Amino acid sequence: MENYRKLIKNIGLLSISSFGSKILVFLLVPLYTNILSTYEYGSYDLVITSINLLMPILTINISSSVLRFALEKNINRNDVFSVGLKITIKGFIGLLLIIIINWILNIIPALNDYCIYFMLMYLVSALYQLCSYYARGINEIKVVAFAGIIQTILLVLFNIIFLIFFKLGISGFFIANILSLLLAIFFYCVCLKLYRINLFNVQNKNIRDEMKNYSRPLVLNSISWWVNNTSGRYIVTWICGVAANGVYSIAYKIPTILNTLQSIFLQAWEISAVQEYDPNDKNNFYGNIYHTYNICNVLVCSLVIIFTKVIAHFMFLKDFYDAWKYVPFLLIAYVFGAMAGLIGGIFSAVKDTKMYSYSTIAGALLNIILNIILVKSIGVIGAAVATLISYFVVWCIRILNVKKYINLRIRIINDLCSYLILLLQSIAMIKFTSARLYIVEFFLFALLIFIYRNEIKKLVEIVISNINRFTRKRE
Fold first, then answer.
1. Is residue 234 a contact partner of residue 121, using CB atoms and an 8 Å limit?
2. How far apart are CA 172 and CA 367, in angstroms?
3. How far apart are CA 334 and CA 337, in angstroms?
4. pLDDT tens for each residue of the chain, 475 residues long
5. Which of 33, 94, 112, 121 is most buried, judging by how many CB atoms fall within 10 Å of its CB?
6. Rounded to whole angstroms, how far apart are CA atoms 300 and 145?
7. Sequence spans of domains, the chain
8. On the CB side of 151, how many CA atoms lie within 13 Å of its CA?
9. Are 375 and 383 in contact (CB under 8 A)?
């Protein structure tokens, strides 16, 4: 039971950090839209998008390698951080060259307007990610949680100071982000005593090559996920126009809720997958986690599909309301993405990042092909269907290949039946209206409950047992 408690504890700590930051940043949106012009906010979004694309390329995703190797008990963790920092700095030098080239050729004018902020935002973002991954690798999850909370509170405070009191506009916006990340990095340095690490005294001379070999395939993985998530929008714009893409893009707002929950779990899972790795899975830890996680994703997805129109009524106003049609298919895609991510944690445990990446690349290539074919054939909804199919293929490839490393006991027939029911729910949302729709939807949801009735009963019993145990301790 100790392995389950560790996982739940890490999920709890990471939830405090992630949810707090997302809620506070969400509350700042009215402030940004009131003070910044559309050009200014668009320029900021361009800078952040560029950083998110460039960072895994220029740093060869070394932060992921730092997390994985820091979890190893027989490796000097100082060496791990030292290698990560050196490669991060080299990546920053690469960014400087890109900025100079862009300045000379004026390829992206908006980046030239804010090149200093672009440079500083990249640096603090890369260092913050490095420190965060290292802290997770040495099992300092509390430090990660507190650093996230501190960074968010400082971001809110600095935004108020620089945007409202000093009225610095987009400059104040950038300064607030840079300072909040910089002080959070300082917090990591103090708590983890990073200032004591000698960057020039690496004991294991082979560690650098091992870490680079691990992280290099993840660069393609990051780019491929980026393609999976965004290629549909470009193709919809190309074939159907900018307005159609505006409606399609807004449809992602609801699945993003699921994605937030999934990302928190997968951060905690990546640690447990390494620490508890057992190729035979004698205690069925991996199997139980996979099964429970799948059931939770399927049931939440099913409920959100049922209430998609209701949620859209409040979230998607005026011409954006039609976006609800694409939401169910994107929700199912995110379920497959979640399950593929969980299996990815196992590939990380055995350091097979090549299979991790090949599956994502296959999905990305298929996504592009299907998007072109389906969007031309059936319109915007084809992009959502293409995304669903590509995520399904990524999951299939990983579920077939993970058997090489672990005896993962899953109930594949039940799972495939549940995925089929989710697909039927999505089709029903489009085909039926009024009372008939909800009769069909709740009938299909009841079928899911029936399929997983024994598992749900066990989960409820475990939750009640833990609540009773906690209550007795409090007394």
1. no
2. 39
3. 5
4. 566 666 676 667 676 666 656 666 656 656 665 676 656 765 676 677 678 778 889 998 899 889 888 888 788 888 899 999 999 999 999 999 988 888 888 776 766 778 899 899 999 999 999 999 999 888 888 898 889 888 888 988 898 899 888 888 888 888 998 999 999 999 999 999 888 887 767 667 788 888 888 888 888 877 787 777 777 767 777 787 766 766 777 777 778 777 777 777 777 777 777 777 777 766 777 888 888 889 989 999 999 998 888 877 776 666 667 778 888 999 999 899 889 888 888 887 777 777 778 888 888 899 889 989 998 888 888 888 998 999 999 999 999 888 888 887 888 888 899 999 999 999 988 887 777 888 888 899 999 999 888 888 877 777 677 666 656 655 5
5. 121
6. 26
7. 2-205, 217-474
8. 26
9. yes
Residue 125 contacts residue 180 (beta carbons within 8 Å): no
Q: 180: which residues sit within 8 A by CB, 6+ positions away?
A: 151, 152, 154, 155, 158
360 close to 224: Cβ distance less than 8 angstroms: yes
By C-alpha distance, which of 375, 370, 367 is closest to 326? 375
Owner of token pair 């200014």: 40
> Contact at 8 Å (CB) between 398 and 344?
yes
The DSSP line for 93-144 is HHHHHHHHHHHHH-SSHHHHHTHHHHHHHHHHHHHHHHHHHHHHHTT-HHHH
CA angle 222–338–454, rounded 5-degree value: 165
Answer for the pair 245, 236: CB distance below 8 angstroms, yes or no. Answer: yes
Cβ atoms within 10 A of the Cβ of 167, count?
Answer: 9
Contact yes or no for 82/197 (Cβ under 8 A):
yes
Neighbouring residues of 4: CB distance < 8 A, sequence distance ≥ 6: 285
Token pair of 357, please? 């990446």
Q: State the Cα–Cα distance between residues 198 and 275, nearest whole angstrom.
A: 27
The DSSP output letter for 371 is: H
Chain centre distance of CA 385: 21
Specify the length of the chain in residues: 475
Residue 152 tokens read as 């968010």
Residue 362 tokens read as: 């296959």
Sign of CA dihedral 167, 46, 60, 106: negative
DSSP labels for 383-403? HHHHHHHHHHHHHHHHHHHGG
Query: Diameter of the chain by CA atoms?
Result: 70
Do residues 332 and 304 touch, judged by C-beta distance below 8 A?
no
Confirm if 369 and 233 have CB atoms less than 8 A apart.
no
